[in-house]
């Protein structure tokens, strides 16, 4: 920190690239207009290294899902966004819970505007809407500079919408398959005559039936943000998000994948194990305050405070066992009533700017962040656990709702994290840049979860180093090495908590910024290692003990985003895991596809500029899961095709049509667990949008 502060003062004293009397740069509201609104790429991002860099200058793999891409293909929730992203797989294990993987490992690193959000559950609950965001950045590999703890998989950074300098407004109505109805509004305007105070509000209401029997999701989303220019150098932003999911007929667990004789099951696509009374409600409130201040001479400081409450309440039926192929039966009931209350407080302060050293100007960012997460949950177990469900009654929804007073259990624990970070980008020569830094984190948890201690305490400093060489004005070569760690509370055979998970990523590749930076392309090879992940190893009395296991993935990927030619936008990526193995060379995490391909593209017809047409294609290779007893469930490789068309009726009104899974491919949503359910068959929607 002393070194960083001395560099600030050195920067004040020596301004090699600007006259000493150059005026301070004023903070101002950024207006996004024109072509920028309709591009599939971004010029700059801070998602990989704390510093504002172009994608080409960033020595790590980054994909950007822009507002234009989300609007064109109706990517209205985070599952749809990540399913269209290079190298990410979406593991929809249930209707209300989802896991994600990248480079073979679970994605647990999520951020809002670059501020990390510790994941207490390890999965995403509910249906996270994307109407609130200008874009979503995905950085693959370990990301120790941006995330205090996590896995060497990927970091997902949600970039919130902010007020615009001029008044803008839009409203849309969507009607789709299974009575899907969605209304969305977005308005931004100045709130005083001078324009020094501006606000923006987003509202969403959506409800639908489903292809799944008895399932009926509903959500309400509201977002408001106000920005006030307190002076020429100070900008205050205050915002709040309310997001509620009210889902009926939800699945807890999913469908059995094999019969008692070992043969695979094959149910109708809409089959569900939910009961008529099943429900899962979640409500999330997020408040944030952000203060930006210009220190002068190119230096600025930003302080951010986030407060998040996440509540869920549910009545659920889990169905377990192995069904009999003839006559049915073999499945058993497990009803439970569950409620959870999670509170998170996140604080972050950072300083960044430029300093002079060796006759050149360099970039520096440093700061501190702190988080506290509290979780209280309770399970009220229903009467009748273990009751056999004869015939096909496990799938008809008629299991009677029991009283939930058979037993009670739950969790009560707290997690705290403190992090100091430092990142610098050294301008070694005109064509050589070095990005380096470190992140020093202490994480500690206390409490219990379902009779097991959640105590963990660990501290670690993780390095980041990357180098970029500009081959010419369009092409760069890069290499990077990053680390990350994740404390864990699971105990070994002696009762001692396991050491933290440790992740490492080594990566090298080429990046190009073409056509005046309108098109970004990259190619990378990578090796990612995750050590000491807890795996159940046995029992001590009634308690499970664990051992740490190691895994390593290697592979390559290609990513492209932006304007390929006039009127032709594309976002595409290919990822190939050439290896995903354990210490003894055995294949691990076989539910992860070794090859994925994502292509999203649109084209504005030259002879009819009011018409835009496009398609999306997603393909993945075979996956499998071991059911035990020599039985293996397999999902064959598959691809799904989507189509879109948008016609601008006039400068304010447009009609768009989207078709999904046009080839009507029947496939499972995931083999992350030993149960699964089927993805949606062919479906579509029509949207009428008014904009001003």
According to DSSP, the number of beta strands is 39
Structure annotation, total helices: 3
Q: What is the CATH homology-level superfamily?
A: TonB-dependent receptor, beta-barrel domain
Cα gyration radius (Å): 26 Å
Indicate how many domains the architecture comprises: 1
Q: Low-confidence stretches at least 5 residues in length (pLDDT < 50)?
A: 1-36
Tell me what portion of residues adopts beta-strand conformation: over 45%
Biggest beta sheet attributes:
22 strands, antiparallel, barrel
Helix content bin: under 10%
Quickly give the structural class.
mainly beta
Terminal CA distance reads: 48 Å
Rough shape? globular
CATH topology: Maltoporin, Chain A
What is the CATH architecture annotation? Beta Barrel
Mean residue pLDDT: 91
Organism: Duganella rivi
GO molecular function: siderophore uptake transmembrane transporter activity; signaling receptor activity
Keywords: Cell outer membrane, Ion transport, Iron, Iron transport, Membrane, Receptor, Signal, TonB box, Transmembrane, Transmembrane beta strand, Transport
Domain TonB-dependent receptor plug: 55-153
Topology diagram in text:
Elements: H1 2-13, E1 44-45, E2 53-54, E3 62-66, H2 67-72, H3 78-83, E4 88-92, E5 97-102, E6 105-106, E7 109-112, E8 115-117, E9 124-125, E10 133-140, E11 154-160, E12 168-176, E13 180-190, E14 197-207, E15 218-231, E16 234-248, E17 255-256, E18 279-296, E19 299-321, E20 331-357, E21 360-381, E22 388-389, E23 407-429, E24 432-449, E25 452-453, E26 456-470, E27 475-486, E28 501-514, E29 519-540, E30 543-565, E31 568-582, E32 595-604, E33 611-620, E34 623-628, E35 631-635, E36 638-648, E37 653-660, E38 675-676, E39 683-691
């Amino acid at each position: 920190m002393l070194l960083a502060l001395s560099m600030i003062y050195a920067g004040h004293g020596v301004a090699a690239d600007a006259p000493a009397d150059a005026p301070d740069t004023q903070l101002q509201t950024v207006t996004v207009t024109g072509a920028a609104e309709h591009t599939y790429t971004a010029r700059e991002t801070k998602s990989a290294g704390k510093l504002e860099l172009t994608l080409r200058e960033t020595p790590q793999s980054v994909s950007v899902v822009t507002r234009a891409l989300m609007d064109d293909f109706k990517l209205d929730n985070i599952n749809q966004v990540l399913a269209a992203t290079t190298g990410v797989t979406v593991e929809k294990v249930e209707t209300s819970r989802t896991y994600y993987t990248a480079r073979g490992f679970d994605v647990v690193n999520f951020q809002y505007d670059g501020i990390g959000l510790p994941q207490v559950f390890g999965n995403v609950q509910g249906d996270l809407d994307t109407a609130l965001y200008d874009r979503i950045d995905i950085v693959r590999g370990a990301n120790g500079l941006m995330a205090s703890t996590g896995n060497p998989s990927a970091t997902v950074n949600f970039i919130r919408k902010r007020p615009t300098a001029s008044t803008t407004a839009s409203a849309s109505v969507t009607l789709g398959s299974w009575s899907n109805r969605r209304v969305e509004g977005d308005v931004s305007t100045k709130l005083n005559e001078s324009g020094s105070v501006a606000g923006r509000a987003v509202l969403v209401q959506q409800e639908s039936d489903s292809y799944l029997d008895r399932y009926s999701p509903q959500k309400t989303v509201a977002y408001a943000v106000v920005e006030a220019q307190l002076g020429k150098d100070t900008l205050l932003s205050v915002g709040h998000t309310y997001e509620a999911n009210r889902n009926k007929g939800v699945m807890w667990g999913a469908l059995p994948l094999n019969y008692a004789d070992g043969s695979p099951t094959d149910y109708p696509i809409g089959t569900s194990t939910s009961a008529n009374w099943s429900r899962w409600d979640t409500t999330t409130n997020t408040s944030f305050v952000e203060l930006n201040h210009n220190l002068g001479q190119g230096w600025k400081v930003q302080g951010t405070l986030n407060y998040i409450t996440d509540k869920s309440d549910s009545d659920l039926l889990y169905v377990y066992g192995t069904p009999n192929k003839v006559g049915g039966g073999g499945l058993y009931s497990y009803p439970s009533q569950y409620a959870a209350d999670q509170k998170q407080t996140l604080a972050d302060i950072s300083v960044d700017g430029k300093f002079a050293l060796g006759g050149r100007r360099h970039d520096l960012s440093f700061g501190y962040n702190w988080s506290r997460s509290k979780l209280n949950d309770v399970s009220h177990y229903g009467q009748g656990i273990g009751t056999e469900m004869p015939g096909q009654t496990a799938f008809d929804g008629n299991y009677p709702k029991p009283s939930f007073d058979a037993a009670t259990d739950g969790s009560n624990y707290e997690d705290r994290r403190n992090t100091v970070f430092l990142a610098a980008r050294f301008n070694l020569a005109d064509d050589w840049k070095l990005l380096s830094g470190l992140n020093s984190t202490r994480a500690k948890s206390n409490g219990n979860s379902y009779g097991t201690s959640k105590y963990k305490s660990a501290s670690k400093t993780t390095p980041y180093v990357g180098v970029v060489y500009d081959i010419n004005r369009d092409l760069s070569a890069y290499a990077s090495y990053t680390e990350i760690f994740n404390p864990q509370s699971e105990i070994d055979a002696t009762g001692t908590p396991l050491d933290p998970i440790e992740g490492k990523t080594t990566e090298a590749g080429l990046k190009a910024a073409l056509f005046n930076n309108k098109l970004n392309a990259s190619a990378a090879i990578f090796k990612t290692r995750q050590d000491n992940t807890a795996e159940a190893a046995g029992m001590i009395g009634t308690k499970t003990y664990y051992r740490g296991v190691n895994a390593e993935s290697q592979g390559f990927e290609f990513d492209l985003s932006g304007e390929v030619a006039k009127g032709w936008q594309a976002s595409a990526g290919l990822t190939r895991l050439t290896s995903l193995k354990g210490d003894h060379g055995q294949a691990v995490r076989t539910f992860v596809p070794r090859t994925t391909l994502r292509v999203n593209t649109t084209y504005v017809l030259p002879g009819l500029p009011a018409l835009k047409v496009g398609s999306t294609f997603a393909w993945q290779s075979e996956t499998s899961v071991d059911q035990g007893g020599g039985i293996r469930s397999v999902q064959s490789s598959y691809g799904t095709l989507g189509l879109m068309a948008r016609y601008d009726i006039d400068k304010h009104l447009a009609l768009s049509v989207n078709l999904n899974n046009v080839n009507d491919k029947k496939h499972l949503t995931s083999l992350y667990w030993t149960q699964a359910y089927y993805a949606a068959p062919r479906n579509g929607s029509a949207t009428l949008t008014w904009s001003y």
